[in-house]
C-alpha cells in the first residue's frame, strides 16, 4: 500500500491505516491531507481519507473521495477493498462482494480481502463461494487454527458434513499429543463437541459415541458431554445405559423436564400425544413415586404425574401439589396448571378441589383433615386461583365476585388488580380493564412489568396517547418513540399498530408495523459480527444454531403479526384511497395517474436534493463534531405519523412484498393464504387466487374463512365474461381442470355446496354466519333468508357457549355486509343479556353504560358513588416516585 509514494509519504500512509484501525480519525485526516498536498491525485490516499470520513458520518464526501481515488487508480486492490468496505458499512453486501472480487483479481492472495469476502459470503448464504474462499485462506495460511475451523464450518453449512469431519480430523493430526494448553482447553473442547455432533448428524452415531468417550479428558463442558452422550445412546437403542445416564443428569438438575422426558423414553413410557394405557399409567406412577422420594424438593417430579393420572388418583396428586403453593402464596400456580384444562374432566376436578379448600379454610381455618391452621393469606390465594379458573371457563360474573372478595380480604396485593383487569378484558370491557391495570401500576411505580401490562391494556382500549405517556415513564430521558424503537420493543409497536388500525389511522398503523419489520432486518444484520467472532472463540455449535435460527427468523409470530397488519393497511388503502394531499392544487388533482406519479417523483427528488444540501451545510459546521471527529446528530424521523407511507401510488405492490415473505416463511399459517386470496383477487391474478384457495382447503377445509374464499372465488369466476384471448382460454382451462379436484364442489353447484356446509356445521355460529354471507353474495334477493339463518342461532347463545368476538363479528356482518339495521339491533339486544360487561354491545354492567349513568346522575345534582375501579374513577398516586430502569 502506498508503494508509488516517496518514503516520507509512504510512512504517512502507514500512519493513516494505523489511525483508521485505532479509530484516531482526526490524526488520520491530518496525515492524508499532508500526502494530498504533494500528491493530490494519489488514489489510495483519497480512498483511505474517504473511509475515515465515512466513520465520521460524512458519507457524501466519503463516497465522492473513494470513487475519485478508484478513478485515479483502477488497478489498486486497496481502492477496490476500501470501496467494498464503504458498501459493507451501508449494508450493500452484494455490491461489496463485487468490489472484493475486483480487488482479488489484482491481488488474489490478499488475506485481509479474502477474510472480508468470506464474512460477506456467510452473511448472504453464498455457501459455495464461502467454501471456495475458506479453502483458499487455508491454503495460504495453514498454520492458523481459525482457517481450518472456518473451512470445516463452510463445508458443514454447504451440506457436506462428512467433509467437515475429515477437515477437523486433519487439523487434529497437526496438533501435539499434549495439546491443548490450559488457556485453550475450553476452545478445543468446544471444537471436539462440534466434531462429534457432525458425526452424529452424518449418521455415524456409533463412531461419534466412541470418539466422545475417547476425548472425554479434553472436554471441559461436562454437562454438554453427558447430554450429547445420552442423546447418542438413545439413537443407538441402548436404553438401559441411557436410563442410568438420565438418572445421573437428574442428580445434577432434578427440575429439568427434558431429563424426565428422556428417562421416560428410555423406559418405553413416553407418548408424544399424552395418551397412555392403564398399565403404562401404573408404571409411570410407580416411577414418579420413587423419584419423588429421591428428589423430595423438586416440583417437577410432583407436577408431571398430573398430566397422565386421572380420576381419584389425579385428585389426590393435584391436592397434594396445590396446597403448598397456596400456603406459600405462589401467584403463578394457575399458569402452571392451565395446560390441564385441555384434558377432559380435569378442570372440574380442580374446581372441586379448590372449592373444598375454600370452604374448609373459611370454616375451620385449615385444610380438610388437618389440625394446623393456615395463615390468613391462604384464603386470598385460593380466591385468586378461583377467579382465574372461572375466567378461563368463561364465567365472568363468578370470576369477578371471587376477585373482588380477594381484594376486600387483602387490598394491597398488586396481582389481584392485574387479574381483575384481565377478567374485564376477556369479558369485553377494555376501558375498565385499562383503569384496573392503571390502579395496579400506581401501587408500585418502580415495577416495569406492571407498567408494561398497563400500557398493553390501554392500547387494547385504544387509549394510545395515555399509553404513550405511561410507557415514557420507563424510557431513557423521557423520549418515548426513539427509545422504544431502539430497544426493539415489538410488543408495544404491534399493540399500538393494531390500535391505530382499529381507529382507521392507517399512517400511524403502518409506521408501527413497518418498525417491527425494520427490527427483523436489524436482527438479520446483527449476525454479521458473529461470523468471525464465533470462529475465533470456537463456539461452533452455537454459531451453526444461530445461523439456522436466522434462516427461519421471519417465521416467528411478531414478524407474522406485523406483516399481516401491514397488508391489511394496504388493502384498506386500496379499497378506500385517500383524498389528495392538502398541498396538492386543483390542476394536479385533475392530472391522470401516470402524470401525477411522474410529478410526485420530481417532488421527491427535489426533497432529496434539499436534504443533501442541508447535510452539506451541517457537515461544514464544526460545532457538531465530537472529540473523536464523529458527528453527533440526533436522528429525526422525517415522517413520524406515517403520512408519506399512506401516499403510496400502488398499495397492492407494497402489500405483495410482505405477502411473499409470509408465503416463504409461514406457508402453514391460514391467514397467509387468506391475505394472498384478498390481494390476488384485487390484482385480478386468478390463478394465484386459486392457488391460495387450494392452500386454504389443504390447511383447514372446515374453516368458515376457507368456505368464504372458496365460494367467492368460483362465484367471481362464474360471472366473468367468456374467454377471448389465448391467455384467457388457458386460464379458463386450468380452472375447469382444477374445480373437480376440490372435494367440497364435486358434483355440486355453489348453492348446494353452501347448503352442505351448513348441514355439516349447523351448530356453529361462525359457520352459519359464513353460509349466510355467501347466500347473500350469490343471490342478493335472499337477504331475508340469510338474516333468518343467523337469527335462528340467537336462541342458543347460552347453550352453545358463544364467544364474544364471534358475536361482534356477526353484528358487524348484519350491520355492514347484509345492511339490515333492524336485524343488527335485534342481535345486539340478544347479546346484551349474554355479555353484560361488553362495551361493544353496551352491556348493563359495562364501563360505557356505568360512566354515562354516572354522568347523568351528576348532572341531576345527586351524589355519585365511587365504588368501583371499573368506572374509571381511580385516585392517582404521586407519579414523581416513578423510578426509571
Structure description:
It is a single chain. Helices cover 68% and strands 0% of the residues. The model is unreliable at 582-586 and 862-885 (pLDDT under 50). It starts with 6 loop residues before the first helix and ends in a 26-residue tail after the last helix. Among the domains are: 7-176, Serine Threonine Protein Phosphatase 5, Tetratricopeptide repeat, CATH 1.25.40; 488-576 and 643-664, Serine Threonine Protein Phosphatase 5, Tetratricopeptide repeat (Alpha Horseshoe), CATH 1.25.40; 667-747, no CATH class. With 885 residues, it is mainly α. It is globular, with a radius of gyration of 34 Å. The relative contact order is 0.04. The longest helix has 28 residues, at 593-620.
Summarize the entry for a quick read.
The protein has 885 residues and is mainly alpha-helical.
Termini gap: 49 Å
Choose one word for the global shape: globular
Radius of gyration: 34 Å
Going by CATH, the architecture of the domain at 7-176 would be Alpha Horseshoe
Strand content: under 5%
Largest sheet: none
Provide the CATH superfamily of the domain at 7-176: Tetratricopeptide repeat domain
Number of helices: 46
Low-confidence stretches: 582-586, 862-885
State the name of the first-level CATH class of the domain at 7-176. Mainly Alpha
Class by SSE composition: mainly alpha
Helix content: 55-70%
Give the CATH topology of the domain at 7-176.
Answer: Serine Threonine Protein Phosphatase 5, Tetratricopeptide repeat
Number of distinct beta strands: 0
Mean pLDDT: 88
